[in-house]
Amino acid sequence: MRRFCQFLILTILIKKLPLRKRLHILQLAAIVFFTVSGGPYGLEPLLGYAGTHGALLLLIVTPILWDVPAILTVLELNSMMPVTGGYYQWVKKTLGLRFGFYEGWWTWLYTFVDLAIYPVLFVSYASFFFPEIAHFKIPICLVIIWAGAALNIVGISPVGKASLMLGLLVIAPFIVLFVIAINNGTHFSFPAPSLKGIPFSSIGMALYTVMWNFFGWDNTTTYAEEVDRPARTYLKSISIAFATVILVYIMVLYSTLHYNINAQTLNEQGYPALGLLAGGEWLGAAISIGGMAGALGLFSAVLLSVSRVPQVMADDGLLPAKIHTLHPRFKTPYISIIICAIVVSFMILWSFQELIIIDVTLYGAGLFLEFITLIVLRIKSPTVHRPFRIPLSVRGLCVMVFLPVALFAIALTGAFAEDGKMFMPAVFAVAALVSAEVFWQIIKMVKKRI
User: Fold this and answer.
1) Which SS3 state, helix, strand or coil, does residue 33 take?
2) DSSP states along 271-314
3) At a CB cut-off of 8 Å and minimum separation 6, what does 106 contact?
4) pLDDT digits (tens, 9 = 90+) for 317-375
5) Helices and strands: H and E segment counts in the chain
6) Contact 59, 361 (CB under 8 A)
7) In terms of CB atoms within 10 Å, which of 154, 159, 283, 328 comes out highest?
8) φ and ψ at 219, to 5 degrees?
9) How many CA atoms lie within 13 Å of 99's alpha carbon, on the beta-carbon side?
């Protein structure tokens, strides 16, 4: 849901606001929220992995260790370089073209994985209405992928008003769910947070689930030049969005624990099953519709925007310019769209949990390069003006960066230990990381021959 809402809201804001001052605090806060979260869809497996005691603890601890360092890094780097291309430009200008390629390549790959997640989610939520649909997962996902590709080649343009409707479809059912839970009349309090008795492999998978539902803060910097007073606006907008994301997740967790739904049922049937318990058929259907609508729209919007990454890389000579050849009639980058659709068609063979492992691993590696960029700039350019500056020394920054890196390592190690179930996606994710160096060497050889 997050990137679709980002795209729609950004579209209507650009149309309505003056060119010099397009995005202000609340407008950007809404975009950041939908970019990072857009609702709790995809958080369902957490209860099964972490249990009732561990779920709350991880929802509190993970944002502090994983998100806060990332947010602070994004704020400082973006205040120094509020440029189109965001994180790719930061890394390239600081660490060089090679690591800029790494950043762009990994971003491209994890976007493929993101694209594969949404058709899978659509099938999951559609099963509320059609229980047998899971048996036809692959053909349905392929139809969604190639229909979305066709629409993007034609040049589909979302309508601005749909942003408000989508927001209601995604968020409103969960607000109703929470209100019903607190007015239920039954006394309930959160269980004491604890990870005692939870296997290490389950902790790793729980971390991946929460991390996936909390990443993407740097994605909102790619249009920083269209934000009014970016340093101040990003600081306030991200703070508002961060608090909102946590609040929404806590509300949903409260409702989940209040009704004491079976973890396996929640994982298999999703939040619609919780809606059935709380409000009956209508609330379960509303949550399902929100999940389906968001997954469809999000896939189309992400596919529409993913062409920006290879375009910037092609401008630097890192990818063939032909990838961005425009369709003679529709003037859309149809070759890039087709390549994306082909790759994503193979990615849907993975399950939702497996895709999350690949997605977070690739994203985490790119985030690590941004951390390195932050520290290198502090050492090499300590006097350069930073409208926002993290109040830490270089040593303090190293400690701050260590926290999300350590969390990332725990999650990856736990995935490898998950009884062999998640071993292959974890290996695939590591291989995808290594592929950046392989393709970099190929690029170097090709450039020498030219």
Assistant:
1) helix
2) HHHHHHHHH-HHHHHHHHHHHHHHHHHHHHHHHHHTTHHHHHHH
3) 362, 363, 365, 366, 432, 433, 436
4) 887 877 777 778 777 778 878 888 888 898 888 888 888 888 889 999 999 999 999 99
5) 18, 0
6) no
7) 283
8) -65, -25
9) 18
CB 397 within 8 A of CB 84: no
Q: Which two tokens stand for residue 256?
A: 């989940």
Q: What does each C-alpha distance from 400 to 1, 179, 380, 395 come to in angstroms?
A: 30, 37, 19, 9
In what helix (H) or strand (E) does residue 52 lie, and over which residues does it extend?
helix 45-62
What is the three-class DSSP state of 403?
helix
Give the whole-angstrom CA distance, residue 397 versus residue 394.
5
Domain boundaries, the chain: 2-449
The answer to whether 77 and 293 are in contact (CB under 8 A) is no
Angle between helices 334-347 and 281-305 (to 10 degrees): 130
Write out pLDDT tens, residues 17-26. Answer: 443 445 577 7
3-class state of residue 23 by DSSP: strand
Amino acid letter, residue 139: P
CA-angle at 63, arms to 296 and 434, nearest 5°: 70
d(CA 301, CA 347): 18
The tokens describing 217, both together, are 């803060």
pLDDT in tens, 239-287: 888 888 888 888 898 889 888 888 888 888 888 999 998 888 999 999 9
Helix, strand or coil, per DSSP, at residue 237: helix
Whole-structure pTM value: 0.81
Cα distance between residue 320 and residue 231, in whole Å? 35
Give the Cβ contact number of residue 49 at 10 Å.
26
Q: In angstroms, rounded to a whole number, what is the distance separating the alpha carbons of residues 392 and 388?
A: 12
Q: For residue 44, which of 264, 295, 215 has the smallest C-alpha distance? A: 264
- CA 147, distance to chain mean position in Å, is 22
Taking residue 445's Cβ as centre, other Cβ atoms within 10 Å add up to 9
Phi-psi region of 311 (alpha: psi -120 to 50; beta: other; left: phi over 0): alpha
| Beta strand extents in 120-203 (DSSP E only) | none
Residue 227's SS3 state is: strand
Question: In sequence order, which residues have a C-beta less than 8 Å from that of residue 260 and are 6 or more positions away?
Answer: none
